[in-house]
Task: inverse folding
C-alpha cells in the first residue's frame, strides 16, 4: 500500500538554526499538507499546497515557515530560525485531487506520514 | 466547520465491541464524517468516512442516523493494539483544506 514517508524521523537543532523537514507524498496525490503536534496537545494544521502554491495556511504558519516542492517527489517544510516553541512532531499528509461534478477540485482523504520529531534546544 | 464532541476517554477489555459516539449538531449538508486513529508518536491514520446510514470496512463500521447530528464508530472485538486516540472530524471536502482535529477519544484496551 502506498504511503507518505518523512525524513528525518528525529531532528535536534539549536535555537535560531534553520531546519528543513522532508516528505515524499503518495505518488498520484496532488494536495500536500503540513501539520504539527506539540507534545500532549492537538494535531494542528499548518499549511496546504496545491498546484505549486499555498492553498491555505493557519496563523501558526508565519514568515518563519516556508514550503516547497523542489522536484516531482519531495515536499519540504523549512523553519528559518527555530524557536524553542517549535519543538513538536511535524506530520506531512497528502491527498488526491479529483474533478468534482461542478468543475471544482475535490480534495480527497488525507493520508499522513509517520512524522518528524523536532527538538529545539 | 461543524463542532464535534466526543468522550475524552474510554476503557475496554480485549475482545469486546467498542462504540465511540461523536456529536455534531451543526453538521452542514455537504459535510462528511471522517474518523482517524492515532497511536503515540505516529501520524493520524484514516479509518473510515461516511455521509449517511452505515459504512463498513475491514477495520470498523460507522453508523450515522438520519438526522446526521451524531455518528458512532464501532470497533468489533478490540485487541490491545487498538489502544489509541480516535478523532471524529466533520467537514466538506470542497471547502477548506485543513483537518480540524479536536482532542479525540483516548481508548485504552486491557487484557
Result:
Amino acid at each position: 500500500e502506498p504511503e507518505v514517508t518523512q525524513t528525518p524521523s528525529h531532528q535536534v537543532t539549536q535555537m535560531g538554526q534553520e531546519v528543513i523537514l522532508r516528505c515524499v507524498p503518495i505518488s498520484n496525490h496532488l494536495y500536500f499538507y503540513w501539520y504539527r503536534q506539540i507534545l500532549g496537545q492537538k494535531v494542528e494544521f499548518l499549511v496546504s499546497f496545491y498546484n505549486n502554491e499555498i492553498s491555505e495556511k493557519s496563523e501558526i504558519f508565519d514568515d518563519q515557515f516556508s514550503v516547497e516542492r523542489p522536484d516531482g517527489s519531495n515536499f519540504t517544510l523549512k523553519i528559518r530560525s527555530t524557536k524553542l516553541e517549535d519543538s513538536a512532531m511535524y506530520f506531512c499528509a497528502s491527498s488526491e485531487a479529483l474533478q468534482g461534478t461542478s468543475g471544482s477540485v475535490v480534495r480527497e482523504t488525507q493520508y499522513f506520514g509517520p512524522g518528524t520529531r523536532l527538538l529545539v534546544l | 466547520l461543524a463542532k464535534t464532541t466526543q468522550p475524552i476517554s474510554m476503557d475496554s477489555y480485549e475482545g469486546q465491541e467498542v462504540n465511540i459516539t461523536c456529536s455534531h449538531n451543526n453538521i452542514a449538508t455537504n459535510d462528511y464524517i471522517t474518523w482517524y486513529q492515532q497511536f503515540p508518536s505516529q501520524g493520524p491514520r484514516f479509518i473510515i468516512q461516511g455521509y449517511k446510514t452505515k459504512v463498513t470496512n475491514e477495520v470498523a463500521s460507522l453508523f450515522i442516523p438520519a438526522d446526521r447530528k451524531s455518528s458512532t464508530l464501532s470497533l468489533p472485538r478490540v485487541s490491545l493494539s487498538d489502544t489509541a486516540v480516535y478523532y471524529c472530524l466533520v467537514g466538506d471536502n470542497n471547502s477548506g483544506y485543513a483537518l480540524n482535529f479536536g482532542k479525540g477519544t483516548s481508548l485504552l484496551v486491557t487484557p
Notes: Chain A is about 0% helix and 50% strand. Chain A has a mean pLDDT of 91. Chain A touches chain B at residues 4, 31, 33, 35, 42-45, 48, 50, 55-56, 58, 89, 91, 93, 100, 104, 106-115, 117 (CB under 8 Å). The longest strand of chain A covers residues 43-50.
